[in-house]
Design brief:
The protein is α/β, with parallel strands linked by helices. 37% of the residues lie in helices and 23% in strands. The protein contains nine helices and 13 strands. The strands form two sheets. It has a nine-stranded mixed sheet with strand order 5-4-1-8-9-10-11-12-13, sandwiched between helices. The protein has a four-stranded mixed sheet with strand order 3-2-6-7. The two termini are 28 Å apart.
Length: 295
């Protein structure tokens, strides 16, 4: 049976510290701490399962935090293929204040050896045999070549498996050239990509340029502003406003959106339904604590 394959190449333990306020050069008392399996790819897999899919998560894990993360996945009943690595999985820290929002501290994470990356590519080849789509989400770990995602997209394209991409920076620029089925940049990521590509035009122009290069879809997320979904070759440009809500949390909202879009793509629904389902899931994610799911 075919099912979504999600790659989380730089996963993390997410640790939230709640404080009354942050005072510089002073002791800050942590009133509570919560830890869970984090990282963009993990969030996507979590939401796919919540939406009724049976995703397979592929991720490298190392050290005590890697053991801890694997235990969280098992508790959530998320099917995972783990590649053991030499260095330790990172721990991201979210400091949540009562009235001044959040501070986030993300370590760079472990550095993968060349042999570890080659083993990961071997795992991807094997898992693609039973994949309905492949979702590449989050940053590349140190040690992985910048075209790492591009390599995997080409492997998926050879098997005619839709590849959905959510990353930024040089990895995004390299991966776009490999022609993923769908790319999900936010407004800032698209703007930065366009500048590197020698462009600096409007949002719609930049999105259509990316779509011309990939030959596929580009979904631009814009927070509370209308999202944009374009396909230059199909001459389609769709916009829709997200549901109007007061955000309680923004961690993982884009991952929830990508999971819902991937589900609709796998079901063969119309692009209008991708956009509607994605915005609904993303908005729902802003109403709950990071790392949790709706009732």
């Amino acid at each position: 049976m075919k099912r979504p394959l999600v790659l989380a190449l730089n996963p993390s333990i997410d640790a939230e510290w709640r404080v009354d306020d942050v005072r510089w050069e002073e002791k800050n008392n942590v009133t509570s701490e919560r830890r869970w399996a984090g990282g963009k790819g993990v969030n996507v897999a979590r939401w796919l399962k919540h939406l009724g899919e049976d995703p397979r998560l592929l991720l490298p894990l190392g050290g005590n935090s890697g053991v801890e993360l694997a235990a969280y996945l098992k508790r959530e009943k998320i099917a995972a293929t783990v590649l053991p690595i030499r260095e330790t999985t990172r721990v991201n820290v979210i400091v949540t204040t009562k009235s001044r929002g959040q501070l986030r501290f993300n370590p760079l994470g472990p550095k993968l050896a060349l042999a570890e990356w080659q083993r990961m590519l071997g795992c991807v080849r094997k898992e693609l045999r039973s994949a309905s789509c492949v979702i590449l989400s989050g940053s590349l770990p140190r040690g992985v070549p910048v075209p790492g995602y591009a390599q995997i997209i080409r492997m998926a394209n050879e098997r005619r498996i839709p590849a959905l991409l959510d990353c930024d920076g040089p990895a995004l620029a390299a991966a776009v050239a490999a022609k993923p089925f769908l790319v999900k940049p936010n407004e800032h990521e698209l703007e930065q990509w366009a500048k590197v590509a020698g462009q600096g035009a409007s949002l719609g122009t930049n999105a259509n340029l990316m779509s011309k290069i990939t030959g596929g879809w580009v979904l631009v997320t814009r927070g509370a502003k209308p999202a944009l979904l374009v396909n230059a070759h199909a001459n389609q440009e769709l916009t829709e406003k997200p549901p109007r809500v007061k955000p309680r949390n923004t961690v993982g909202a884009g991952d929830a959106m990508l999971a819902a879009v991937a589900q609709q793509v796998a079901r063969g629904t119309a692009p209008e339904e991708w956009l509607e389902a994605g915005l609904a899931a993303g908005s729902k994610a802003t109403q709950i604590e990071a790392g949790r799911l709706p009732a």
